[in-house]
Specification:
binds zinc ion; 856 residues; 8-stranded mixed sheet; 43% helix; 28 helices; binds ligand BES; 5-stranded mixed sheet
Length: 856
Amino acid sequence: MAEVRRLVKDIIPARYELAIDMNDQAFEFGLDETIEFELKRASKTLDFHALDLKVKSAKLDGKLEGRASYDRDEHLVTFTFEDEVTAGQHTLKLTVAGEIQDSLHGFYRSEYGQGEHEGRFFMTQFEAIHAREAFVCIDEPAAKAVFEVSLTVPDEAGYTVLGNTPELSDVTRDGRRTVRFEPTPKMSTYLLAWVVSQLASVEGKAKSGVMVRIFATPQYAGQLDYALDFARRSLDFYEDYFAIPYPLPKLDLVACPNFASGAMENWGLVTYRETDLLVDKANTSLGQKQRVSEVIAHELAHQWFGNLVTMSWWEDLWLNESFASWAETLTVDTLEPTWLWWANYTAGLGAYAREIDALANTHPILVEVPDPKGLDEIFDAISYFKGQGLLRMLEGYLGAEAMRDGLRLYLDRHKYGNTVTDDLWAALSEASGKDVAGLMHAWTLLPGFPLLSYEDGLVKQERFVASPREAKKLAAAGEAPVWPVPWAAVLPGGRRSEKILADQDGAELPEAVVSADWFKPNPDEQSFVRSTYTESIIAALQQPLQQRTLGVADRFGVVSDVWATTAAGRTSSKAALDLTAALRDEPEFIAALAVYDGFGSLLSIVEPETERRRLEAVGQWLAEPNFQRLGWDVRDGESHFDTLLRPVALNAALRFDVPGAKEEALKRFADYAAGGQLDPNVRTPVLFGAARYGAAEQYEQMLALYRKEEAPHTRQAQLVHLGRFTQPELAHRTLEFALSNEVRLQDTVYGLAGVWRARDNREIAWQFLQDNWDELVRRFGEGGHMLDRFPGFPGDAFSTHAKAKEVREFFAAHPHVLITRPVAQAVESIEMRADWYDRDRQDIAWFLDQWEASRQ
Ligand code: BES
Ligand code: ZN
C-alpha cells in the first residue's frame, strides 16, 4: 500500500499569523497569513496543504515572489520560486481569499432561529483535514505550531468573536472591528477554531481559577447552567487526576446550530451540537442530560489527551478517541456514581463495539490510513468504544493507581509533543512494573476479539466472528490468534474467583471455578470478550439471573452473550428465547435492555408474515410487566433507572400493541398538539405512538409542531418521528422533507433515519437513498462524518440474501472513499442475519409451538 506522503518531513512550521477579514454578507473572507517554518532540504518548490483557497500573492523572506499552483485532488498548493530556497528558517507571507462555505467543515456558516431570533452563525470545524480549507498550512497532527489569530468583522452586527485563547485587543475603526487573540500554545492545526455570532453566555471559575464560559445563540440563554456546572466539575476532576493544570486561562463551550458530530475538542473553544450542550427543565429528558454530561467529560479529557499530547499520525487516532471515551466514563462515574456509568457502557457502547468487532470487516485498533480523504471513516465504534473497553480492562489489570500514575507520566513526558501507542505502554509499564505492551499488543494489532468457552477445566479461546461463513473463511486462511485475557468469575454467594491471565488457548480455570455450582465469567464485563455457554451452564445460571444475585452488568452480559452466540450459530435460538422468556420480569434498566435488544434482534431476521405475527405475540407478553409497573407518568422519588426504562418499556408496549398503550399515546399526543405540556421523559413513546397509530391528521400536527419548535431536543425527536408514520405517502413526504431547506444539514440524517425504522417503509427508504445518492454525496462527500452513516441504514434494516446482493451491487456501482468499510460491514451483517434465519427457522417454530401451548 502506498505510504501517505507527510509534508512535515520537509517543512516544519513554528508559527502562523492569521489575520482574517470576514464578509458576513457575501460569505467570503480575506486572509493575511504569515508562516514561519524550517525547510529541511533546499528546494525550488514548497508544498503546503490548501483546498479551495485562492492565493493572491506569496512572498518569501520579504523578497522572493512565489507562483502558486494547485493540485485539488491532493489538497496541495505548491509555491515555485525562481531560485532555490535554502534549507533553514524562512518566513512566507501570503494574501489569500476564500469562501465561507455552506457545509459542516472548514470555515462555514449557517443560520439560526426563526423570526425575531434569526441570525447568522460562523464557525470552524477542522478535524480531521479541514484546516486546509481556511488557511494554507501543514495540516498534519505532528506539525505543531503557535497560532496568532485575529478576526475582523462588521461592528454593527453585535457579534461575539471567540478564539482558542483570550482576546488581546478589540479595536473598532470605520465600522470594522478587529479582535486579536493571545498566541496559542504549540498545537496541531486540527484544533484551531473560531466562532462568530450573536451569543448569550454564563460564566464561572474552576477551582484553579480557569474561567469557564458556556455560549449559545440568544434564545437559549436560559439553558446553559447545567453545562457550566458539569464542565467546572469535570475540569476540577481532570486537573486533579492528571496532576497537570489546564494550560489555558479560559475554556469556552459553545452550542452551535449546525454541527456534524456531537462535539469537537478545539483547545479552549469546544464546539457542540445544541442537543449535546443545552439542558432545560421542560424539554430535556434524563437520558439527554446524561448525554450532555458525557460529551462534556469527553471533550474536556481531550484538552490533555489529544490537545496537550497528540498522536503523531491518524493511524493512532484511537489514542485520542478511546482515551477520551474511557476518561469520560471515569469522570461521569466519579461525579455521578449512581448512574453506574460503566454498567451503562456495557449495555450500550460496549455492546455496540462488540457487534461491529464481530464482523470479518472490522479493523485493528491501529488502523492503516491509506487515503487521508477517507479519514472520517475511522472515527468509528472500534476507535472509540472498543478502545474505551480495552483501557478499562487494562485499568482493572494494572489497578487504578498505577493507571493514573502511568497516565500522568505519559502526559508530562510528552506535553506539547506527539506520540505513538507504544509511548503510552512504556509509561504505563514504568508506573506499574508490568509488561503492558506484552498484554496489549494483541489487542491493538489484531482485528477482532476473543470468544471464550469452558470445557474440561480449561478456558479456550478463538476469534469471535458472528457470521459462520466468514468464520470459516478466516479459519481456512489459517488464522488462529490468541489474546492475553485478564479473567475471573463471579461465584455463588457473591464470591469472586482469583484472577488469572488466560494468555493461551486452553488456560487452566481456577479450582474454585471448576468446583462451583455455577460461575459467571468476566465480572462486571470488565474484559473485552464474549463467552459461549453450554446448555448446562445456561441452565445453572438461570437461578442467579432470575433471583438477581448477579449484578446488572453481569445479568446483561450473560443474556447479551447468549444472543450474540445465537446469531453466530453456537447457541440455539430456542435456548436464547427460553432464557429471555424466563427473564420477562427483569425490572432493572441495564439488565432489561439485554432482554429487549436480544428479542429485537431475533425479530429483525424473521421476514415471513405469519411467523412474525406469532413472534410479536411473544413480544407483547414480554413487554407487559414493565409497562404495567411503570405506566406513563414519572413518579416523585422513583429510581433514576425506572425513569430511563419507562420510555423503553412504553415503546415496546406500543410496538407490540399491548392493550391500552395505543389509546393513551394518542390521547397524550392530542393534548400535546393542542398546546399541552409533554414530559420529556415520555416524549419518545408519545411521538412514536402517534406515528404508529396515527395518520394524516397526526402527521400534520407533528409537522406543525416541528415548524414552530425552538427546543433542539424536541425538534430532533419530532423530526425522527415524522419518519415513523406507516402510510407510504407519508414516508415519501418525510424523505423529501429531510432534504428540504426546512431541515438543517446536521439533521438530514435524522429525518431519513426515522423512515428506515418503520419496517413497512424500508423499501421506500431504500429506493429513495439510491435515487438521491448523488445529492447526499454532494452534501456530505467532502467529509464531516455523515456519509458513513448511510450504509448502516439498509445494513440494519434488511435480512435477506437478495437484499444483501442489492446493497452490495448498488454501492459497488457508487464507490466512495468515506464508506468503503461501512458498506462491507452492512452487507456482511445482512448476510449474517439471513444465514441465522435459514439455520434457525425450525428452532424458532419449536419455541413458538411450545410457548403457544403453554398459553392455552
Ligand atoms: N474529535 C471528535 C469529533 C470529531 C469526530 C471530529 C470525527 C471530526 C471527525 C470529538 O472529540 C468526539 O469524539 N465527539 C463525539 C462525542 C463523544 C461523547 C463520543 C461525538 O461527536 O459524538
Ligand atoms: Zn473525541
